[in-house]
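Practice problem: MSP domain-containing protein
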Amino acid sequence: MGVELSLDPPVCPIQAMGGKSTHKMINHTDKIIAFKIKSSNNSNYSVNQIFGIIKVSETFTLVITRKPGKPQADKLVIQYVAIGEDVTDAKAVFATPNPTGVFDGETIIKLSAAE
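Answer key — structure tokens:
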């Protein structure tokens, strides 16, 4: 596997006092992908959409919001899987595990809150 899904910019420098950071999630594959975003710190961070679908060679605008709080090493994990053209519900894709028990891939974005 190469880089199927990337983020631009690849890091998230938000101040510990709070703020927003906007990123482009880019599908580099020849397949439609469904994604799910998981956070290591749901108390301080949220995203504009947890589940979604990105078509071939398209992008999704991800907005990460941070509430004020003590800075620590956090991250977002974006899991993704290739899906068929008939799939319209990304949440349903992740509701049932793949037969192999693994996802097609994941991308991690480090959340580096600075004081």
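Discussion: Residues 90-95 form the longest helix (6 residues). Students who identified this feature from the tokens alone can consider the problem solved.
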